[in-house]
Amino acid sequence: MKRAPFLLLTLLWWSLVLITSGDAVSGDWSRRLLAEWFGLAGTGLDVANYVIRKTAHLAYYGALAALLAHSLVTTLSSRTRRAAVVGVLLAVATGVFDETRQALHESRTASAWDVLYDAVGATIAAWVYTRRAEGK
What are the backbone dihedrals phi and psi of residue 104, each rounded to the nearest 5 degrees, phi first? Predict the structure, then answer.
């Protein structure tokens, strides 16, 4: 019964990644929040917005890759390293899909750099997951 919770969590996280890529969570939205909540303006606002948004790419896709890998290990009895590679590939494919979809929204911009951040986050998380799962 260990399988179902992780599989459900993976599907929920994957959904969250895709839901938050729409118009509602644009760069303008995060800028507005930072300005209202912390009183940021000018260069400080721009830097904070950039750092937070890129860190979110690393974290979102890192968590997605680790969850995908763990779900593959627990549901399909896949080997840890193979599952980690598949998790990274699926996370990066999701990032490519996400950026392509963002190109269709006026308030969003598609960026190959964001896919790179997604890939780095996914790779780091998969590496950490593999090391922990293998007891190293």
Answer: -85, -10
pLDDT tens column, 19-69: 887 777 888 889 999 999 999 999 999 999 999 999 999 999 999 999 999
What size, in residues, is the chain? Answer: 136
- pLDDT of 1 over the 50 cut: no
The C-alpha angle with vertex 11 and arms to 108 and 63, in degrees rounded to 5, equals 70
Cα–chain-centroid distance for residue 88? 11
The alpha-helical segments, DSSP class H, found in the chain are 3-19, 27-38, 42-76, 80-102, 112-133
| Residue written as token pair 């948004």 | 53
* 123 CB-near residues (< 8 Å, 6+ apart): 65, 88
In a 3-state reduction of DSSP, which class is residue 78? coil
Between helix 80-102 and helix 3-19 the angle, nearest 10°, is 20
Encoded amino acid at 23, one letter:
D
For residues 17 and 49, what is the distance between their CA atoms, to the nearest angstrom? 18
CA distances from 125 to 62, 128, 136 (A): 5, 5, 15
